[in-house]
Amino acid sequence: MGIKSKVLAKVGVTGSRLTTLRTLRQNLRRAIYVNPLLRALSYPKISVLYLEISSKCNLSCKMCTYQKEHKSTGFMSQSLFTKCIDEASEMGVTEVCLHFGGESLLHPKFKEYLKYAIDHRDHGGIRRVSWIDNGMLFNENIANLVVDLKVDSIGFSIDGIGSVNDSIRLGAKYSVIERNIKYLLKRRGIAKPEVFLSMCSYGKTEEQLMDVYRSWTPYVDRITLIPSTSSDNSIDNRENYFKGSKMIQPPPFCTYPFDLMAVSWIGEVTGCCLDYSFRLNLGDASKSSLKAIWRNPQYHTLRNTCLKNDFPPGPCHNCEFWKINFETKDEQILAGTAILHYGYIYKSITKKNSFKR
After folding, report:
1. Which H or E run includes 36?
2. CB-CB contact of 247 with 333 (8 Å)
3. Which side of the chain, N or C, has fewer Cβ within a 10 Å radius?
4. DSSP string spanning 326-354?
């Protein structure tokens, strides 16, 4: 359960009441945004900025549509990266994620980029720095740097135990990933970073999911199960992902363009974390400031389209991702040693009585 959910639970707001509160908040956001005066006084802020420092990847995961959609790949230049970090710091962006479509550790200047971002967290306006990694290139040297810099959060993508993972994440070797994660966990102790696993619902039985929960819940801070999506962002394994849960009315509208910006390795901008090929085409960060792009007509049009739920042909037209809405609840699993939390889109598994870093 997230921090906000825990606070609300302490004052008696849980389950359907928490969902109702979330819906009310979204409706308030809509009312503010459609009113020009209110929007001018309280403009949406970037909560999460993704920087695709590498669009190259060393794996070929079976469910991944990213490589199929990209004609060219490369690394983000130092000038574009420092520009984005400087501007994010000035804007007070809550979290900068040093990943998007590819594997960030392939970038030859990754360590230098990480240090630069952390410096703007410690001495600038950025509040958190994180990234998600496939674990194959993560090593003791990187782990030591991460702990020394007090990186806020690192997620590792796995899709099963042993051969199950390796048969889905082609090119991966589970034993290497396991060794790298456990070294980081040992090295950090009770300090930062938060370490979590990000797992896709693709290609696994319920028992294989439980194997992951059983093996990793005692060690990591959480495990997040996310739905597998097709290239048009529809859910491609709906029956498996929704099993054992109750779905309730979808939220009033998609909020991603109100909170999120992603910048490609060459500066293309999108407002959705699923638009890996940057088809929304909201601007060019190599030519315009992030603030100017955030307030430009393209972003404004996309937000208005979201408010009306009337999407033209494109990456948003058939998207079902934002419509997923679990009834908020906690369920004990693994003989009561772990908690499975249903909350909006994701399922999260944590050790019982775990604490938030």
Report:
1. helix 36-41
2. no
3. C
4. EEEEEEEETTTTEEEEEEETEEEEEETT-
Task: Tokens 């909006």: give the residue.
Answer: 344
**Residues 41, 77: Cα–Cα separation, whole Å:** 35
CA angle 321, 216, 326 (to 5 degrees): 25
Asked if residue 263 has pLDDT above 80, the reply is: yes
Residue 193: asked if its preceding bond is cis (omega within 30°), the reply is yes
| Region of residue 233 (phi > 0: left; psi between -120 and 50: alpha; otherwise: beta) | left
The single residue listed with the structure tokens 């503010």 is 32
C-alpha dist (Å) from residue 319 to 108, 217, 231, 322: 35, 31, 10, 7
The closest of 249, 154, 165, 259 to 212, measured between CA atoms, is 165
> Among residues 100, 162, 173, which one has the least CA distance to residue 132?
100
Q: How far apart are CA 315 and CA 29, in angstroms?
A: 23
Q: Which two tokens stand for residue 335?
A: 């003989």
Q: Is 31 exposed, middle or buried (0-12, 13-18, 19+ CB in 10 A)?
A: exposed
Q: Is-contact 80 51, C-beta < 8 A?
A: no
Cβ neighbours for 260, distance < 8 A, ≥ 6 positions apart:
46, 47, 48, 49, 50, 271, 272, 273
What amino acid occupies position 344? Y
Mark residue 309 as left, alpha or beta (left: phi above 0; alpha: psi -120 to 50; beta: remaining): left
Q: How many CB atoms lie within 10 A of CB 297?
A: 9
DSSP assignment letter at 265: T
Q: Please state the pTM of the whole predicted model.
A: 0.90
